[in-house]
Write a structure and sequence with these properties.
single chain; Rossmann fold; two-stranded antiparallel ribbon; 15 helices; 9 strands; SGNH_hydro_sf; Inducer of phenazine A
Length: 349
């Protein structure tokens, strides 16, 4: 019997084979990892560095490839910005903004698969020299920091936990508690995606570390994000660019009842990745609203524009609208709806 994912989202196999496989990603100093470079396929294409290519109505560009004519707009984030779930490059958020919903400026895809807010900021500092003039920086992110805040304190350290941190600490010989949601042991074929794998025991006698309470998770994630936004604000002001932070949507933060296709996909994914066990408490709609409030308050104090897009989407989506291929990544239709909603919130043409 063909699986729901193979039937409804066959292009997702391309992401799994090349962008969710530890043997295929690039291990980089400082950033830890980034996408395969110069990857070509019908689904996803990257430049000489690994940035995904954005498409306008009659042009295309990327950070390390064909140059955009500035001033340009930068869409920053993790895998949702990169466009996991899109069936082709022209369906990603940056492409839909550039080609249709806010086409007066080029939009560059500045997404890093499985990145947290520390890595998003580092990516910008390392590759800013390749960018054209930038007049708009939109950070569309937030969930990875919250999910990683569930890890034990020794994994979070001073700058927050990151995916694959279990590999890092084990290779460095650093003693840590039992690892968890960073995706498994090293080796080709092991996948590190946000929804891959659950807690892995270090041995039969290893006690399971206590998961921090929800209040602590929100405080940790919001604190790190706001700390990094302080630096983003300084950089944006120096560049003469407007800075906006948008808390990305989670399917369960948008609406209580998923679309029929989402139900089939989520049930199948839960059997594979145990999402409810690993991320259950933060997946609740009320948790998303509390996280948004913490970020909204912090952004207001820093003079940074903030939007929580989940309730906005919840007001416009219908019960039959199929937005998500999993709980965090969009279908092509979802990308288009979110891009249009985002353009409206940002008041960009």
């Amino acid at each position: 019997m063909k699986s729901a994912r193979a039937t409804l989202t066959p292009h997702m196999l391309t992401y799994e084979e090349k962008f969710d496989d530890r043997g295929q990603i690039r291990w980089l100093p400082y950033l830890m990892y980034f996408h395969p470079a110069n990857h070509t396929s019908e689904v996803v294409n990257t430049d000489t560095i690994g940035f995904r290519i954005s498409h306008g109505a009659d042009d295309h560009a990327s950070v390390g490839g064909r140059k955009a004519q500035g001033p340009a707009r930068l869409l920053v984030g993790s895998s949702t910005v990169f466009g996991i779930g899109a069936s082709h490059d022209a369906a990603t958020l940056s492409s839909r903004l550039w080609s249709t919903h806010a086409p007066s400026r080029p939009w560059l895809n500045f997404g890093g698969r499985s990145f947290n807010s520390t890595q998003e900021l580092l990516l910008f500092t390392l590759y800013r020299h390749l960018l054209p003039e930038i007049d708009e920086i939109v950070i569309f992110s937030g969930f990875n920091d919250l999910g990683l805040a569930r890890l034990p304190e020794d994994r979070r350290g001073d700058h927050g936990a990151f995916f694959n941190c279990g590999d890092f600490f084990s290779r460095m010989g650093a003693p840590t508690s039992d690892a968890s949601a960073d995706g498994g042991r090293p080796g080709r074929g092991r996948r590190r995606g946000l929804f891959r794998g659950g807690p892995e025991a270090a041995g039969p006698a290893a006690p399971a570390p206590a998961v921090p309470g929800l209040d602590e998770q929100i405080a940790t994630a919001a604190g790190l994000t706001l700390r990094h936004l302080d630096t983003w604000r300084v950089l944006a002001e120096a560049l003469g660019a407007r800075l906006t932070y948008v808390l990305q949507p989670l399917a369960t933060w948008v609406r209580e009842a998923p679309a029929p296709e989402e139900i089939a996909l989520f049930e199948e994914l839960d059997r594979i990745s145990h999402f409810g066990t690993v991320y259950g408490d933060i997946a609740a709609m009320e948790s998303g609203r509390r996280y948004a409030e913490a970020l909204r308050d912090g952004c207001a104090k820093r003079g940074v524009r903030f939007f929580d897009i989940s309730p906005v989407l919840g007001e416009v989506v219908t019960p039959q609208d199929w937005l998500f291929v999993d709980r965090i990544h969009f279908t092509d239709e979802g990308h288009d709806l979110v891009a249009g909603t985002l353009a409206g919130l940002l008041e960009l043409s």
